[in-house]
Design brief:
heterodimer, A: 296 residues, B: 284 residues, alpha+beta, 4-stranded antiparallel sheet, elongated, Centromere protein P (chain A), coiled coil (chain A), CENP-P (chain A), nucleus (chain B)
């Protein structure tokens, strides 16, 4: 009897040890995978988790409908933030990095777009509790942008990577893409209004609008509209008029402002009339006698 | 023989007695130990199953959120609870995206007062450090009006509202206010860093908006005091628009060395510029 008992105790003790080891391994595994992709189990998510783990008496329909309601709320919220912030995020992956000391460090990888500008941003976010407040800090900022205007942004981007000013980056790309959209809208507007004169050889999102009179194929004017981004993040449009006029024509009319003078004259027009009106007056000038077609 | 048997009986009895006594103390002990262990095994088993289930769920959610090509077909999500799993995956994705909007300085817009007002948060950051966040409430009807806020009074909210046409473009207004707040937070942080990193430089004067900063340097060798005034007239920027030097030695501010230092102070945040100037031994 006592022998049997002792045997059973030993067996059970061994079982306990085995289970304990198994649990330790699982806990480690859970920690690792949670660190890889940390899910937030808040609100209805907690109930849903309890349900799939079989820890609750709730009916599946109830759990699903309550979670659905919350998901719909979140969808609405995200839509509002996207609209207000002018930035649409399509993925955010967070990994918790092993850290020394009281600091919590996360590796964050974001991707999204602001209008036509596609970006991917990676950084480390460190959080350090200091009394009642938490100090949050960005480290190792890495930016990848996909844009045709990359050149005007490059010095700004390297400065931001250096200073780790994540908020400045997003403020700037928002205003940059808003100004790109302005340009696209203006170019498209002129192309639709003056189809025989205005062409956009590199698409409506490009920097160049070409003006040609159909009967004067040798002469051309170009509106070059680029966006200057300072290292401090200020976005300023720079609009220039360039011309391509045959030498012969220039020699015939040496006093006319068609050559070098046109560019300067256009700058004064810009200052006085603003970009749209200045461009329109140039287009009207290039179109010469086609008044009928133009007076729409 | 009899004696032996008596002894035998006696010894047997005494053996029984010992056994009974020992059992008396063991009997209640051993089963309780077994019971205890059995209960423990049961508890541990359920804990293990719980963990296994959680891990399984985590794996499923992870797959749902980032399906690897070709693998989504063979996913073993039971069809009955697959709706729940999809909702859970979307829930966690949305939570992460909303968190990301907050990290990138989003306005955290909230509709309040049954759609009649909206609240916004304006975050500030300088060189990777998140600083104060300010809040602003706008009444939307009948026309857009700032109702409540905790933005410092020296930020000219009303004139910014006029300039950026608050009625038609709330976003442009928020962008402008945010720019002003970030520039202010940046200048204030620079001042804090100057005080922390450059003990030998005396801050003689600064204002609340941190748009004026007067510093006292000591030029080595003769220990000449040098007064440096930084003016930040563009309140949307963290860099000064004017640097002015004042010194007993009237030739010093015009020396090429100090002309260079002045342009450095115009181009580089003041705490960094001071580090460079100190390194060149132009100040103590």
């Amino acid at each position: 009897m006592s022998e049997e008992n002792a045997k059973e105790v030993k067996q059970l003790e061994a079982e306990v040890k085995l289970l304990q080891a198994e649990i330790r391994a699982l806990q480690q595994q859970r920690q690792d995978s949670w660190e890889n992709v940390s899910f937030q189990f808040r609100g209805q998510m907690q109930d849903a988790l309890a349900f799939v783990c079989g820890r609750t008496q709730d009916l599946e329909e109830t759990v699903v409908s309550r979670l659905k309601e919350e998901v719909e709320e979140l969808e609405k919220d995200l839509k509002l933030q996207t609209q207000m912030n002018g930035i649409s995020l399509n993925s955010c992956i967070t990994k918790t990095l092993p850290s020394r000391g009281p600091e919590v460090v996360q590796q964050v990888c974001l991707s999204g777009r602001s209008s036509e500008l596609v970006f991917q941003v990676e950084f480390q976010l460190s959080e350090l509790k200091d009394g009642s407040r938490t100090e949050r800090r960005i480290r190792d900022l890495n930016l990848v942008l996909d844009s045709s205007d990359l050149q005007s942004l490059s010095s700004f981007l390297s400065r931001v990577e250096e200073t780790r000013d994540l908020l400045l980056f997003f403020r700037t790309i928002r205003s940059f893409s808003e100004k790109c959209d302005d340009r696209t809208r203006t170019f498209q507007h002129f192309q639709e209004k003056f189809p025989s004169i205005v062409s956009l050889p590199k698409g409506c999102g490009s920097e160049v609008m070409t003006l040609n009179h159909p009967e004067l194929p040798g002469c051309g004017f170009f509106i070059h509209w680029c966006l200057d981004v300072s290292t401090g993040g200020a976005v300023t449009p720079k609009i220039q008029l360039l011309s391509k006029i045959p030498e012969k024509a220039l020699q015939m009319f040496p006093g006319q402002p068609a050559g070098g003078g046109a560019a300067e004259a256009f700058q004064s027009l810009l200052r006085i009339l603003g970009p749209e009106a200045a461009m329109e007056s140039i287009i009207r000038a290039v179109s010469l006698s086609e008044r009928d077609e133009l007076s729409d | 023989m009899e004696g032996a048997s008596t002894r035998g009986v006696l010894s047997h009895l005494s053996l029984l007695e010992v056994q009974a006594r020992s059992r008396g103390s063991q009997v209640p002990q051993q089963p309780s130990r077994v019971k205890e262990l059995k209960a423990k095994v049961e508890a541990l088993t359920s804990q293990r199953d719980q963990l296994k289930a959680e891990l399984q769920i985590h794996k499923k959610l992870q797959k749902l959120r980032a399906p690897v090509d070709g693998e989504d077909e063979e996913m073993d999500v039971d069809s009955e609870s697959s709706e729940l799993f999809h909702l859970m995956a979307r829930h966690s994705e949305l939570t992460d995206l909303l968190h990301a909007h907050n990290l990138i300085g989003g306005y955290d817009a909230i509709t309040t007062n049954r759609g009649k007002s909206m609240c916004f948060s304006l975050a500030t950051q300088y060189e990777g450090v998140y600083l104060d966040t300010y809040n602003l409430e706008l009444n939307l009807k009948p026309n857009v009006r700032i109702s409540r806020h905790n933005i410092p009074p020296f930020i000219p909210l009303n004139s910014l509202a006029e300039q950026s046409d608050l009625q038609t473009d709330v976003r442009a207004f928020l962008a402008t206010v945010s720019q002003h707040l970030n520039a202010f937070a940046g200048r204030r942080q620079q001042l804090k860093l100057v005080k922390e990193q450059h003990k030998s430089v005396e801050v003689m004067e600064s204002n609340l908006l941190c748009s004026i900063l007067v510093l006292m340097f000591t030029v080595p060798k003769k220990k000449t005091p040098l007064l440096c005034m930084l003016e930040y007239t563009d309140h949307t920027r963290c860099l000064p628009t004017q640097v002015h030097l004042n010194c007993e030695d009237e030739l010093l501010p015009d020396s090429p060395k100090w002309k260079k230092n002045c342009s450095l102070l115009m181009e580089v945040p003041v705490h960094r510029a001071l580090t460079a100037i100190k390194k060149a031994s132009d100040i103590v």
